[in-house]
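Hi R.,

Here's the chain you asked about this morning:
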Amino acid sequence: MTRKKALWGVLLMFLLYSAYQLVALSNLVMQNVSRKQQHVVLFISIMLVYGLGSILLQHLRPLWMKQLWHIFHVILIPTLLVLGLADWWMGGLPKGWRHFAQSVGETLVSPVLFTGIVLLQYAFAKMQPDA
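And here is the predicted structure, written out as tokens:
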């Protein structure tokens, strides 16, 4: 991944995260929105971040870093879906589970994982001898 592409990726991830924070978590916008609609907004935000990250990390080397991105999302997105569906059908989750789901959702939307992978990629590139 080129430095320019990585910087654009981090910037785009930050903008998506900021948009999510400003719109989805703003009390002015979300105070009259049902919990189901909040779940949908979070899911769409997560899928946008996942899709963008997948496109930007397409040619990343070493391959295990790209796989880390996918594994992280493939495990946590279904977990959130199960918790969200349980919340819908049960009329609410216990406080501990709700806090866990909020933390996972926030982590998946934030630019932290993408930025960490990009920084790891640069650290590994510096350790590789020039061919």
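One quick note: The chain is about 80% helix and 0% strand.

Cheers,
M.
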